[in-house]
Amino acid sequence: MKDFFSIDDRVRIQKDIEKKYSKVAINPAGQFRYTTGRKALEFLKYDRNIMEQLPEMVADAYCGTGNPFLLGEIKDGEIILDFGCGAGIDLIFASKLVGDQGRVVGLDLIPEMLGRAKKNIDKLNLKNTSLVLSKDDNLIFPDATFDTIISNSVFNLVPNKEFLFKELYRVLKPKGKLMVVDQLFTGGKIKDHRDRVDSWFQ
């Protein structure tokens, strides 16, 4: 499979993403062109019963662009991967949905975001969650590990999307669910390769 990005491209993209999202971990407000926090959760029709359990400091950390839980049912006892979990808000919703018999793993490449996620998880005293730092396109999990994989506004940041989809398929159980929400480019002039790399994190 052809990778259109050089090693230098990939290093540049990752550094820019890390720079932006280390700031987002501290304060997501004003970092995006769209609504974040509790207002976004309400607008995107997240489960109101769970939403009402979130302290303001936790709800304020939400900066997704969609609601993956509208794409399918999460059942009690499932094992879930939140790919690109960020500050852990979707992870918290998944944790509540799978119950004590389930398990949710949050994976992210930004240490500061995982630090924010840990604070949010600890605030709610969740025991069925874990966090994993990843710096590699290869997922560290065995084949057929997860019942469901959720992801919110992460795929647009990944250079080699074909490889990622293959990895996600590998770690999904047979008949598992991939529930992804994201941003898409529509219309306008596509930038040349160099400009795309230079503005990737935007």
UniProtKB/TrEMBL annotation:
GO biological process, one term: methylation
Reaction(s) catalysed by this chain's protein: arsenic triglutathione + 2 [thioredoxin]-dithiol + 2 S-adenosyl-L-methionine + H2O = dimethylarsinous acid + 2 [thioredoxin]-disulfide + 3 glutathione + 2 S-adenosyl-L-homocysteine + 2 H(+); arsenic triglutathione + [thioredoxin]-dithiol + S-adenosyl-L-methionine + 2 H2O = methylarsonous acid + [thioredoxin]-disulfide + 3 glutathione + S-adenosyl-L-homocysteine + H(+); arsenic triglutathione + 3 [thioredoxin]-dithiol + 3 S-adenosyl-L-methionine = trimethylarsine + 3 [thioredoxin]-disulfide + 3 glutathione + 3 S-adenosyl-L-homocysteine + 3 H(+)
EC number per UniProt: 2.1.1.137
Keywords: Methyltransferase, S-adenosyl-L-methionine, Transferase
SUPFAM superfamilies: S-adenosyl-L-methionine-dependent methyltransferases
One GO molecular-function entry: methyltransferase activity
InterPro entries tied to this protein: Arsenite_MeTrfase-like, Methyltranfer_dom, SAM-dependent_MTases_sf
Gene3D superfamilies: Vaccinia Virus protein VP39
Class of enzymatic activity (EC top level): transferase
Ranges of residues in domain Methyltransferase: 75-182
Homology family: Belongs to the methyltransferase superfamily. Arsenite methyltransferase family.
Stated name of the protein: Arsenite methyltransferase
Annotated source species: Psychrilyobacter piezotolerans
Origin organism lineage: Bacteria, Fusobacteriati, Fusobacteriota, Fusobacteriia, Fusobacteriales
